[in-house]
TrEMBL record:
GO terms for molecular function: chromate transmembrane transporter activity. The gene is chrA. It comes from Psychrobacillus vulpis. Belongs to the chromate ion transporter (CHR) (TC 2.A.51) family. NCBIfam families: 2A51. The chain crosses the membrane at residues 12-37, 90-111, 117-138, 150-181, 201-219, 300-320, 332-350, 357-375. GO terms for cellular component: plasma membrane. Coiled coil: none annotated. This is Chromate efflux transporter. It is found in: Cell membrane.
Amino acid sequence: MNKTNRNRGFKSLLEIFLVSTRLGFTSFGGPTAHLGYFHEEYVRRRKWMDEKSYADLVALSQFLPGPASSQVGIGIGVMRAGVLGGITSFIGFTLPSVIALILFALLLTGFDIGNAGWIHGLKIVAVAVVAHAIIGMAKNLTPDLKRKAIAIFALIGTLLWQSAFTQVGVILIAAFFGFLLFKQHDEVEEARLNFPIAKRVSVICLLLFFSLLFLLPVIKEVTGSYWVAMFDSFYRSGSLVFGGGHVVLPLLEQELVPTGWISEESFLAGYGATQAVPGPLFTFAAYLGTVMKGWQGGLVATLAVFLPAFLLILGALPFWDSLRNNPKIKGAIMGVNAAVIGILISAFYFPIWTSSILAPVDFALATILFSMLAYWKLPPWIIVVSGAIGGALMTLI
């Protein structure tokens, strides 16, 4: 009987790995598109969960900081085969883009192509992609004047005082005002979910999350270790991201560029390249870590930036029902989501726009790429290839 259960468990893990890896190779388009791919594969085709359970899992991923699509994938794996299922699902979905970005970073540093025209084209791709993301998210997250005001506050605050601590402060203040302004917000939720995780395990995960967040800076100062400092920067960035992968850009930029660990040009070139690969945008960390410290650095950075999301989703699953039905918590979330828009616009101006749009021809290319993405609905990889070609051609003009 035990052997039968082990065989069944192994088959479940293998199935999760194969399905999630295929999604990791084919899921272009960012977090929202990923959720669509997941719904088609896990809900409609394989019927691993029903519509309501999937919607609740997506709601939880939006509530927590971190990469929403990755957290949904982890949650599906957990519901299918426990904690090992969550780990397997995460590895399958993330590995293809991690490998691709590590190879790109090695090529970038090994051949000194940082000043190539196509690299500048990738930076202009970042302008088009982030502009498109801002417009799409703003429609949903700032539909009324109160939330627009919170977004403007976040924009001004993060533009005038540019630091990771400013962004954290803005998010906390926005949560407070959201709590005050939207505490009467009410939405009926009926279904309750059951997750195969003991609450004791969840509490351990939450304690580990907060322990690492507060102890890593102390350990960094005591040891002076480059690797600890690097792990701390990526872990903190992964811990404080509300709103999806695009928001990790300003956090990582503030952590890495002012310290001199990576040049702004290499940073933006990698961000543009990240749009060319499928899978979660957080794998941008694999590129950054590789530029900083080789392929080993790429793996460490990937682990550090995703670890908070993993600990939080495992820690929150058993407690989600009571949290999501609290209207005051919902109000705070609404305020945070509005602040995310302001932070995105701030990051869009600096460093993305100021470092990429240097001449009228740059703006012309950005306009073309944005139109291809927003109006012609072309796949993101076509936008990236077009941007790289356009950047190369501009050097001939």
